[in-house]
Amino acid sequence: MGTETQIEDYKAIAQRTFSDRKRTNILKRAEQLTIAFLLPKVPKIISPNLLTLLGTLGSGIVFLAFVLGTYLKNWYLLLGIIGLAINWLGDSLDGRLAYYRNIPRRWYGFALDIIADWIGIVLVGFGYYIYAENGTQIVAFAFVALYGWSIIISQLRYKITNEYSIDSGFVGPTELRFIIALILIAEVLFHGSITYLAGLITIILFVINTIDSFKLLKLGDLRDKNQG
């Protein structure tokens, strides 16, 4: 009974703290329950802004992992997995902590989150640019550009529908972190595989963004017709 009650409590926390956004990603339920479990345990001295900084620091660790993997040993790439975990912790808890403590700063937090996400993905992309070999650095540039495209899509969708979502169908930032972690592991085990896997992810992102862009245009057209 105690465990079931706790789960219901976590569900209630998740429902309240995620009320400002729509999530459609595969790991939605597990992620929200994990966040709901962690929120009450965050020390009072830690603020949402500090968690945002922590998330950016995590991206910096991923950058460092690529640098160390380039100039020292390949297995330093595994440090990037720790960086991704830290990035998830800070990025996922910052805004939710503000809602949990009833101190949300909706527009400030919205702007800060987007800026921090952009800085984070640039750090990851630049790290891969340093690591990439034989002219494949273009993949790093493409990845950053496509992720930026997905950020633009999410903002435009919010403007048109007044419903904020950071996911592209079943894939969200958390799933992307898992994929990057798996790519890092694969590269340590099979040197050179990152070129093909990163290229594949870039192609998939391009396809997803293209589909989402057409959906966005349809939403915009529908809103125009409804307002007309």
Explained architecture:
The chain is globular, with a radius of gyration of 19 Å. It starts with a helix and ends with a helix. It has helices at residues 2-17, 28-38, 48-71, 79-100, 106-131, 137-161, 173-189, 193-227. Helices cover 77% and strands 0% of the residues. It is mostly helical and 228 residues long. It has a single domain (2-227), classed as Four Helix Bundle (Hemerythrin (Met), subunit A) (Up-down Bundle), CATH 1.20.120.1760. The model has no long low-confidence stretch (mean pLDDT 87).
| Largest sheet, strands/sense/barrel | none
Percentage of β-strand residues: under 5%
What is the arithmetic mean of pLDDT?
A: 87
Number of strands: 0
How would you spell out the order of helices and strands? HHHHHHHH
CATH class: Mainly Alpha
First and last CA, distance: 55 Å
Helix content: over 70%
Radius of gyration: 19 Å
Q: At the fourth CATH level, what is the homologous superfamily?
A: CDP-alcohol phosphotransferase transmembrane (TM) domain
Number of helices: 8
CATH topology: Four Helix Bundle (Hemerythrin (Met), subunit A)
The gross shape turns out to be globular
From the coordinates shown, what is the CATH architecture?
A: Up-down Bundle
Oligomer: single chain
Number of domains: 1
The unreliable regions are none
Counting helices, strands and paired strands, the structural category is mainly alpha
Give the SSE map.
Blueprint: H1 2-17, H2 28-38, H3 48-71, H4 79-100, H5 106-131, H6 137-161, H7 173-189, H8 193-227
